[in-house]
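Lab notebook, bench 4. The sequencing result for the construct came back, and we need a structural model before the next group meeting so we can plan mutations. Quick request posted to the team channel:

Model the 3D structure of this chain.
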Amino acid sequence: MKILAKSEALGVDLASAFDASPNPYMLLTPDLRFAGMNRAYLEVTRSERAALLGRHVFEVFDADGDTDNVRQLRESLERVLATGETDHIALLRYAIPLPDETGLVRYTDRYWSCTHSPVTDDHGALRYVLQHATDITELHNLRSLAASAARGDSALDLIAGGRLIQTAEQIQASNQRLKTERNNLIDMFMQTPGFVCVLTGPDHVFQMHNGAYAQLIGHRDIAGKPIREALPEIVGQGYFRFLDSVYATGEPHQGRNSQVMLQREPGGPLEAVYLDFIYQPIRDGSGQVAGIFVQGYDVTDTVLAAERQKLMIDELNHRVKNTLATVQSIAVQTARSHADPRTFAEGFQARLLALSHTHDLLTRSHWEGADLGAILEHETEAHGPHRVTLVGPPVALGPAAALSFGMIFHELATNAAKYGALSAPEGRVLVDWAVADQAHPVLHLTWREIDGPPAAEPGRRGFGSRLIERNVRHDLAGEVKLDYASGGFSAEFSVPLYRGRSS
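Done. Here's the predicted structure in token form:
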């Protein structure tokens, strides 16, 4: 209760001091209506408190119709409302209503130097604008008197204060130009597409940063904080050392495609970001480094695109070499099995078409892989769906495994059409597959031929059997069992899929 009583007493004392001040004060609400004024203000404006409270200031301050004065006052008040900072008017003419000897009210010119200050609450929100005005009419009139005497830069003009008024006007005009230029520069600073910020002092305290910088760091509250406190996750990544070096030596530092791990969202994980940037020293009037200007661009998309392009080119080179090696092997092995050029050309062309079919499937998936069932359909569709039955779940194969299985199924289908079940009108092929052990998946596939001629193991190993066995054991790291039973040929495959998914 004692603390409350002291607070109330202090408020009464401040109100009394405000009202007793010989300098005119007025208090405006954010919508520029009179919220209060002291006795000195009422005296100089010849007004009554009740007549002003609640009225808009420009209902009162336009009595003499001077639009330039109204504009100056309006712009100054609007700057305070927009920026929350104090604003000054060096010279403002405001006519005061005074009765003459006949009692008729006439307006008398008075000249004022005005200061408009924001009054905020405990949370920093603007509640009022306080105007403090100083009457400099006598100085202005003395200057006019000196000028009328046509005495130029005489002592009377200096004593009369002409220089003072002229300087005040020049300062006001210069301040207005500087504010306009400053606002234009701030607008450019905030709207630039790259990220920019200004750091001051040896601790690199954030003074300003634009929207692009805020987006880069996840819109954190960094104003007025040292960079080590504002961005703690970049400790140990070298950037603090670069800033310290620029501040100590005055030499700029530039980085290109530099990786930095940043927290892009509050509470989120660290993300790799790539930046082009420059740290440029800011010097004070004595030439000493006072801060650092940071400017740059987020080039993450460009860097990742270049990396993807390099990987694609390397992968393409790898695949072309593998494909050429496969074609070479097909040509050599086919030549060994076919002494006649015509039959060689037919066998070689058929195997190249099989390889091409699998390439088509891989191209549709951007070489991410192909489905086992789709490869089987490609290699057996020429014999009709009623003669080849495919039963099994979807199985995704990597590019290398898909190419190997494509060649294997082509050899099996060709052999069945020439010598096996598909060479007889009633013959059929049954293909079943399943995947076992999901932790380390293994594909089990069976190719069985029924209702065809009896199978007989060949007297010598042909190209087809050699290709099948080599591809399964070498390329797929699996096992295969070929069975030439009298009831029909069959082949059983066991292939680990973790190996088969590799490219």
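The chain has 17 helices and 17 strands.
Will bring this to the meeting.
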